Structure formats: structure tokens, C-alpha cells
Amino acid sequence: LTQLFRPLDMLGMVYRTIRQGLTDMAEMFRLIDTHVEVADAPGAPALAIRQAGVVFDNVVFGYDPERTILHGLSFEVPAGSRVAIVGPSGAGKSTIGRLLFRFYDPLSGRILIDGQDIRTVTQTSLRAALGIVPQDSVLFNDTIGYNIAYGREGATMAEVEAATRGAAIADFIGRLPQGLDTEVGERGLKLSGGEKQRVAIARTLVKNPPILLFDEATSALDTRTEQDILGTLRAVAANRTTISIAHRLSTIADSDSILVLEQGRLVEQGSHAELLRRDGLYAEMWARQASEGGEEDLVEAAQ
Ligand code: ATP
């Protein structure tokens, strides 16, 4: 009898596998569906970067159409300026970054770079123009050199070396016996949070994008390392359009303009000094962070 059941059992397994396969297919189609939503328009041209100004024009967005996250958001990041986005958790700060990269399309409204709606240009050209220094930089289990050169296909050794200087990690690499050929990650050298961050900055420098998005680049670091890296980031940001998504206000107090977002709406906008005078949400957040410690940092940053 067992002999008889074994094939049936097998059949059951095959059936389950197929069914699982179908579920996976359905999931895949759902993903493809989402992907189709952000497909290139037929015959889309490449994004033509002139000065790299960014505009959000009345952008409405929700991951789920039933739940709107951004409610008609409009703001401008003038070419070459440093703009910060702050606000309580869940306000929609990171969502703005995802829309800029076109991982999703707005439900209505437009996002423009140098006057071009990002939906009308190729995604390859759009993403080539954008650089991100994320919160947690992911490094490949490969050499430091590979991790930096990954920033742009065809990057030369001279460009990689220049990037290590720009990211202030050249001295550190120079002291390693194998230099840029040192393996990192599980297979090799364990880098500290700050060193990893600098490798990521060097990678972005190799990419050399006209628009930079900083996603609280320094959150995991101690104050000293954070201040050092902030200095490096400021140098990297010079002459580029920069959008910083920040939790710690001390890191963005010197931005050209600060956008204060609350529940997907822009509630305040101005320089640090203007926003303090306004005595609204920003001033309240600033006072709260100052009382939570790091007051010296805040004072230093405000100067
Ligand atoms: P934080 O400061 O906590 O990082 P944030 O201001 O960056 O928050 P977002 O990450 O933009 O906020 O999230 C805004 C809202 O969108 C939140 O309510 C969140 O739950 C929701 N959200 C974020 N990502 C997704 C997703 N992939 N699918 C569905 N909802 C999401």
C-alpha cells in the first residue's frame, strides 16, 4: 500500500509545488504590474541636465491609493542649493526620496528636474543623475577598490583614487598593506561605521551625480566621527543640488532652506534662523533636541 501511496504523495508534493509556483507567479505579475507603472514612456529621451534644479509640483501620493501620504506637496530645490527635509516620523520624508528616484509615480502632480517631468525621461538617465548616501551603506563582499569603482561603470583607477581623497579615506586605505585591493566584509577587513560611510561617499563621488540625496547619512556614528563626516559631506555637496533627509537638526541647520513636513504637508519653510523666529514646529523640534542633550553640537551647528 505504501508503494501505492508514495507516487500519490509525490503527486501531492508536485501539486503543492505548482500551486506555490502559481502564487509566486501571481506575486511576480503583481510586481511586474508595479513595474509597468514606472516603465519608460515609449521613445523617452534621456534626462538633459542643465543646472539640476528640482521641483515638486502639487505632488499627491500614497503607496495604497486609499491612504494618501503626500497631500499636494509643492517645493523647489534651486540648482546648486542645499535643502533639508525634516519632520516627525512618518511625515513622508523618505517617500519624497523614493519618488525622486521614480520607484513610484505620483498619483497626481509632477516632479521636474530642469523643467523635465521625470516620467517622460528614461529611468537610466534619471538614476544616473541622482546620487544617494544612504543611512546604512551596503558594501559588497569584495575589495575596497571594487566597492568604490562600482559607483560608475568604466571608472578609472585615477578616478577611484581621487574619490578616496574626496571622501577623506585615502590615508586610511594607504595604511592597509593591500590598499585598494583589501577585501572587506565577511571575507576580509571589518570596517567601522564611519569607514563604511566614507567608502559609500567615495562611491558616490565616482558616480559624480549633479543631484545628491543624503538620507540621514550620519545617524549611526559617534559625535566626533559625525562632525568629521559632515565636513566631508559639505565639501562633496559643494556645487551640487543637495536634498538632505534628516532627523537630527544639528546636521542640517546650515542648509540654504529647510522644509518642515508634517503628515505629508509642508507646514513651514525657511532658513534655520527664520524658522526659529517663527516659533512653530521647527522651533519646537529644535528646543526638544537641545534639551535631549548635544546642546553644544546644536550651538556649534547654528554658528
Ligand atoms: P521616518 O522619520 O520615521 O523615517 P518618514 O518621514 O521618512 O519617517 P516615510 O518613510 O516617508 O516617513 O513614510 C510615510 C508613511 O508612508 C508612513 O506612514 C509609512 O507607514 C508609509 N509607508 C512607507 N513606506 C511604505 C511602503 N513601502 N508601503 C506602504 N506604506 C509605506
Automatic annotation (TrEMBL):
Domain ABC transporter: 54-288
Superkingdom assignment: Bacteria
Compartment annotation: Cell membrane
Protein name: ABC transporter related protein
Lineage: Bacteria, Pseudomonadati, Pseudomonadota, Alphaproteobacteria, Sphingomonadales
Residue window of the full protein shown: 306 to 608 of 608
